[in-house]
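Researcher: We're teaching a course module on how sequence relates to structure. For the next exercise, students receive a sequence and then see the predicted structure as tokens, so they can try to spot secondary structure elements on their own. Here is the exercise chain.
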Amino acid sequence: PVARGEGALSRRNWVLAAALIAPIVLRSLWVDQGAYARGLPVSTPDYASFRQATPPLGSPVSTASDPSPTYGLVLLDWAHQNQFAVPELGSLASALANRGARVEVASLSYDFSALPLEERLKYADAYLVAAPTLEFTPAEVRAVARFVERGGRLVVISDPTRGSTAFDPFGFYLGPSFGDVAVANGLLAPHGLVFSDDYLYNVHRNEGNFRNVFLESATEDPITAGVDSAAFYGARSITSLRGTVLLVGDDYTFSSKTDRGGELAAAATDPSGNVLALGDLTFLMPPYDEVASNARLVENVAGFLAGGGRLRNMEDFPYLFARPIAIVPTDDFPLTADHLRSLAAAQIVLGSLGQDVSLALSGAGATDQVVFALFDNPDAIRPYLDGIPLVLPSESQDGKLTIPGLPPFDPTGVGVLLVSHNAGGTTLIVLAQNSADLEATFNLVTNRDLSGCFVHGAAAICQVGAGGISGFTFNDTGLTDFGGDLFLPTPSP
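Model: And here is the predicted structure for the students to work with:
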């Protein structure tokens, strides 16, 4: 009985093994039909004939044919959580350097002795703001607006690919990234330029991606000169109120906000021509600056920043000069022991501002200069006025001093600082009634202190001696005009 049981178990095992193996054998014989043997040749693509798509590269831009070099300082904003690294703007910095312009980075500082933006703009010729995400204060917005009014150049760049993410002090994530539109628009509000919170796209004609759009020149302008077609890599659209639209997309370039198109702009200027808004940052950077006419556009933007030729006035005190300074003693302010101390102090103070100071026998050949004259000696300053219709007391019937834009007033106890510009440079004219007042007025320059003065355009009127001014009143804060807001106060540096 035991043998018969073992035989039955053995047969069941063979049956189970056959049940497992049979499907595999049948599938191999029926489905796979044995070992694989390729029949007809399989056709493959002709890889040798393939050509990799490349962007349209522009011709190298030569600076040899550019205008003669200009000189100035471009202030690069990096104090408002700007979403870029300074080396990314290397191509633009090189183009500025070729024009003799210097770039100064204004970074966020917790040093209380650091100059605020308002003071930095006094010696700058242009201000470049790219992808800011920290809001400008109302005082900073006003300072930038006054800077533009005084002839300064402003470039504001927004970019939809740049954003900032919020974290708490412990490094925990607080929210999604936010862009730069609100901050940039707050700075541009006084100038009639507005960025849209969108990006441009074109599915018909683009540079390898629907968000990489081609733009054409919309008008003849120095910024678009030589630009046949520019490629922007993720660009915001711009609205210019009464300004000039510079670069636009074609009819198939749409806004992501509305999915509508029709000559959407990505570059524009304000009505004054001193403010430029650009909707893309990437085109300024290698290798994208070599695509299409981008290299030429970068050069033109550099020319815009460096070529303003801003003229200083008394609102820029003490940064009135852009070139070496010659102090010119005159018969009214001779080089004597009494005046030597003031001249030496001026050399030290102006030298601390990075301005070379020397003495000159005359103004001939001097680029920027300081000259002195008394009110009763008009012949001494006429060569420096460059058409300014100043009427000195000795030239008027009532013995009053008339400065353009102001009513005539009694000059007793008054010192005047007047900035004049001509082809040779900048001249600071120091005027007073007598030698003591003349020296006291000049000492305001060496002390960098106009807290007792009020400025009106190119002139600063200061009380340096005893006396009153008809039509004006001096008080503890300086000169007060009761006939209208003719003066703007200048705070002490």
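Model: If you want an answer key for the exercise: DSSP finds nine helices and 25 strands in the chain. The mean pLDDT is 81.
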